[in-house]
Amino acid sequence: MHPSALHEKDGIEQPEIISSASVSQIQQFRRKQPSAQQLIDGILKGNKIALSRAITLVESTSPAHLEKANEVIKACLPHANQSVRVGITGVPGVGKSTFIEAFGKYLTSLGKKVAVLAVDPSSSLSHGSILGDKTRMEELVKDENAYIRPSASGESLGGVARKTRETIILCEACGFDTILIETVGVGQSETAVHSMVDFFLLLNLAGAGDELQGIKRGIMEMADAIVINKADGDNIKRARLAKTEYNRALHLFPMKNSGWSPKVTTCSALTNEGIADVWDTITDYFQLTQDNDYFSKKRREQNQYWLLETINEQLKRNFYNHPDIQILLDENKKAVQNNEISPFAAAQLLLEKYFK
Amino acid sequence: MHPSALHEKDGIEQPEIISSASVSQIQQFRRKQPSAQQLIDGILKGNKIALSRAITLVESTSPAHLEKANEVIKACLPHANQSVRVGITGVPGVGKSTFIEAFGKYLTSLGKKVAVLAVDPSSSLSHGSILGDKTRMEELVKDENAYIRPSASGESLGGVARKTRETIILCEACGFDTILIETVGVGQSETAVHSMVDFFLLLNLAGAGDELQGIKRGIMEMADAIVINKADGDNIKRARLAKTEYNRALHLFPMKNSGWSPKVTTCSALTNEGIADVWDTITDYFQLTQDNDYFSKKRREQNQYWLLETINEQLKRNFYNHPDIQILLDENKKAVQNNEISPFAAAQLLLEKYFK
Q1: Do B166 and A342 touch (CB under 8 A)?
Q2: B277 to chain A nearest CA, in Å?
Q3: How far apart (Å, rounded) are the C-alpha atoms in residues B136 and B116?
Q4: Torsion over CA of B270, B273, B278 and B281, rounded to 10 degrees?
Q5: Per residue in A87-142, pLDDT tens?
Q6: Do the Cβ atoms of B311 and A81 come within 8 Å?
Q7: Do B310 and A217 make contact, defined as CB atoms within 8 angstroms?
Q8: Which of A216, A298, A309, A311 should we substitute to test contact with B (largest number of B Cβ atoms within 10 Å)?
Q9: Contact A22/A41 with Cβ under 8 angstroms?
Q10: What are phi and psi of A90, to 5 degrees?
Q11: pLDDT digit string, tens, across residues A31-71
């Protein structure tokens, strides 16, 4: 999809889809440069257009925008954190979009305000492979209690993850109490999403006996629930079999620190069968982890994790983007491959150059 | 165990245990400061005392020693790499030492020269929890074709891993063709060892139905073979059952890049039953990965991994050890916990201070 097509479909800044925004609100925030204070006021009043403009600042690479974004985030922080953050992953084809559409509609029917975000570092290349094609969430996108934002783009997962994590804060300050964060079942993006959510949900399909084969390294271990999607029609029996298989597989993993035993359920985003069960499972989890104080402990740890992670990433970026270092690194990589120098001696050479 | 006791038992610099070293060799290398060239010559001639002295340099924290160590390693590099590197892990109590004794003796009986190293970052605290108590490898330590060296000590896993990886180079240049690297079944040390060996072996015990419970995150996935130890006496039946269980569990994981399907075998370090099978499995693995060129590809990747890993670790150490940064970091950690500042804004503050 072409980026401009994505933007047109985005629907966020398109008044015809945002039924909750009055004409005056739209005019106010469609101005080229709303001030930080205007954005803050708008967000705290629940204005989705102000929210979108602020997220655009967070996603910007301009230092001036970054400074403004930080000001907005700082003011939003005391109003954030009152939410449930759910990560949703699954390989392509598992039906993530239809599941989120059905699940999101169910949540808004309970009176919840639902924000749907995505972490997809590949989106800058593919122009939004997840949450890009909004037609797959046709109904949810029109729901005034839902807000859908495609993945930030960026060169690195770290950059995309930072933007998403700050976006969570803005959404929460804007009154969204349930944050769903979708990710692709590829690479390290699950780990990044896992470290910014309270509950991690793995969406799977029933398959032949080998349905566990395709599950990526460690992802099953992160899951607080496995939901077998497309449990409808001819598929129901296979879905139940898969449920037994997954339950057995989950027993192979050690007890979680949360004290929670991961659950396996089946659902159909087509018939809505089992969609309520998913929310009940999440509610049970929150009850348990709020009672045993794991919930707030995990959030504190996640904050600290992101502080250190951001520092470490920037330290590396500063080193590896240094022009002299890049030349020297290329030379030393070759020397290491040819066994002319040990990896450690080569590292030492490079570090001496850098710190001098 | 007291450090001096460890040193006395070490046996490496104790002439009475090194039957292969002539008195003149011992005298030559017991001198306080053999030159780098003397060490190189000694190592290339297969002298274990020169090897031990060079490893001591590698393990030193003195800059002068480090420079000398680098000189020795550089000269050894063209003579290294002609070996088989096997990582061996398993939780305490699984019988790693008795297994390595039996396995090492079997290998020397085949005419192999076996070096046994260890990666145990806790050893600086516990004064050598693995490979420290040499009485458990009584026979192997006296074998002239074996060389045993306890884990380097160090504050960080990264430091211990670096030392071990350079020690591998020295051992190979000294003529050791089979390098066994033991590690404890704890934390990140498996990952470090996995990234320096060709073949990774997980030692396990048969147990009740829940024997898979205790297996650490990701370790089973790294294993090229699972060996169920203590398959003797009353235990044989349970060991066979465990073998079936582990075989089933291994099917849950995706295909390895090596094209190798991990094997499960049983053995007894007491009766020597199954010890030869372990080596046969490893031999099969080497045949396959040399035919499909995965073997050399993996070694090249490991070299590059260690180059980058060493750089990244040093960049972090330089930042976090900076006195001003330490104070500022403590302040910002608290502010982040209290939601006064976002983790990203705090990171930015710290980085600005550091790079200024």
Answers
A1: yes
A2: 27
A3: 13
A4: -170
A5: 999 877 788 889 999 999 999 999 999 999 988 776 544 444 455 554 568 889 88
A6: no
A7: no
A8: A311
A9: no
A10: 165, 150
A11: 568 999 999 999 999 999 999 999 999 998 888 898 899 89
